Amino acid sequence: MKNNWKRISSCWLPALIMVMLFVCARSADEYDLFRELRCPVCPSQSLLESQAPESIQLRETVRTMLAAGLNRDEIRGKLGTLYGPDIFRTPPINWGNSLLWGAPYGLLCIAVARQIYQHQHNK
Length: 123
What we know:
The structure is a single chain. The protein is mostly helical. The chain has helices at 2-36, 53-67, 72-83, 98-121. The chain starts with a helix and ends with a helix.
């Protein structure tokens, strides 16, 4: 009887651990996606925070896509085409908004260069 139990546990225990790890990884992806996506009704809330009916429906859509085997980038791409770039809480970096992303660094470099130039010429 003990040997049977050892055989059964040696087969099923690794399988159970794999299933648990898969479920945890899937729920982590789900959680990250819900935090990254904006509520279609309340733009100040994430999909995770909002309790609007549209958000609940969108969460179910994301869960269905994850269950179908789509990865995070594919889901983001599909939702981006359906809802536009405003669905994402963090805007994507592209040529259209690269000036906005790069301006603070450019201004900082100009300010540092100006300070160095003034410091060298005041000696």
